[in-house]
Amino acid sequence: MTRPTTPPVRTVLPPSALPGLDLADPATHARHDLSEIWRTLRAEDPVHRHRPAGGGPAFWVVTRYADAAEVYRAPDRFTSERGNVLASLLQGGDSASGVMAAVTDGPRHRELRRVLLKAFSPRVLAAVVDKVERAAHDLVAAVAGRPECDFAEDVAGHLPLKAICDLLDVPGQDRAFLLRLTGTALGSDGPDQSPFDVWQARNDILAYFGELAKSRQKHPGTDAVSTLATATIEGRPLTMDEIVANCYSLILGGDETSRLSMTGAVLAFTEHPAQWQALKNGEVSVDTAVDEVLRWTTPALHFGRTATADTRLNGVPVAAGDIVTVWNASANRDEAVFTDPDRFDLGRTPNKHLSFGHGPHYCVGAYLGRAEIAGLLKALRERVDRIELTGRPRPVYSSMLSGFGSLPVRLVA
Ligand code: HEM
């Protein structure tokens, strides 16, 4: 294993930069390592008032684990219905509110979530996980031994969408089309993406699932689209808007997050060769390694809520209507919860990271996400001897997602 020779991709932003910081700006996250900022906020100003940004109002920045968990746990005090990420919260709402589980609260959320969880039945999941493991082996085998590959594109770029397409039983001939659209719809490729392209891609995905759902209503199978298309809540079928939005949420929630954690794992192995060796030699279990990869990479940087009434968070008064953002990236390095939090330790236990959130909106795809990462780690362990960084990783451009959209490496077989 050789250590990376390229200069750091992100520069560490010192705490003195706090007054000018704009956490809503994707460039902040793409260009800077915010670990010093998070450390200072956790210690000195854990519920921080962020100046107005992104054309919207001021918002709260929650950085300690305990406060983050409190917000996640209390949808009656901190609702997702006006959006659950800064981009939509600052624009005043989310058009899928009350329709898509992630931005719905109360009894309707519980029912939509029940339907979504039915789509992850053990039988369906077992088949999906089995295919993911085989795909991980094939993809790693195809690039192992080559002088260079882009791990983000050549390996991680294929696995999660394949798993979700298997879950939804998307026909093989449509998959490349969907992969292209989701890349654009999430808008994290770079600053040059036009808002129109993003909007168009989202609409195309929704239209695609509308057609697929109609055909599954006529000929249902055991897949997730059929589950949503034939489900009833209090005796009534879901509306087409609900079916389509929740199909889309599986791609939205599960594609890029998993990709980023896998790519981040490989980058971490190049930076921490002893940990790679420990995994390779079987000194640490794949299960603990998966959770440390999730904590270390924290693909979902933040989630957000809106205060439903005047309340207090860690003693700080928060007014009704205020936007409250919870920074998983900081909570997962909280020294009050994690021993030596800046150490990448694949054997870490306990490891109750917040990478999948917490409480009523806890990620419905957590089992699948873990299984994808486990499949990849097993494939790497079996097929690869050393991992060398061969170029400069390219960070994604997002205030919501964290990680690398390109990772040039050599996987030495
Ligand atoms: C919710 C992260 C994989 C689908 C969430 C939440 C987080 C998260 C933090 C909570 C959002 C909130 O509280 O507002 C991740 C990460 C993943 C991953 C880091 C991979 C490493 C997946 C997969 C799927 C998925 C594979 C589906 C195939 C969803 C859905 C929700 C959700 C539908 C909304 C649940 C609800 O609101 O009740 N995810 N996720 N995620 N995730 Fe994931």
From TrEMBL:
- Residue spans of biased composition, Low complexity class: 1-15
The record's section on InterPro entries has:
Cyt_P450, Cyt_P450_B, Cyt_P450_CS, Cyt_P450_sf
Which PROSITE patterns did the record assign?
CYTOCHROME_P450 (PS00086)
Q: Which domain of life is it from?
A: Bacteria
Region annotated Disordered sits at 1-21
Q: Does the keyword Membrane apply?
A: no
Sorted keywords for this record are: Heme, Iron, Metal-binding, Monooxygenase, Oxidoreductase
| Cross-referenced Pfam families | p450
Task: Output the SUPFAM superfamilies linked to this UniProt entry.
Answer: Cytochrome P450 (SSF48264)
Q: Does the keyword Iron apply?
A: yes
Q: Which PANTHER family match?
A: BIOTIN BIOSYNTHESIS CYTOCHROME P450, P450, PUTATIVE (EUROFUNG)-RELATED
Q: What protein family does this chain belong to?
A: Belongs to the cytochrome P450 family.
The protein's name? Cytochrome P450
Q: Which organism is it from?
A: Streptomyces nogalater
Q: What is the lineage of its organism?
A: Bacteria, Bacillati, Actinomycetota, Actinomycetes, Kitasatosporales
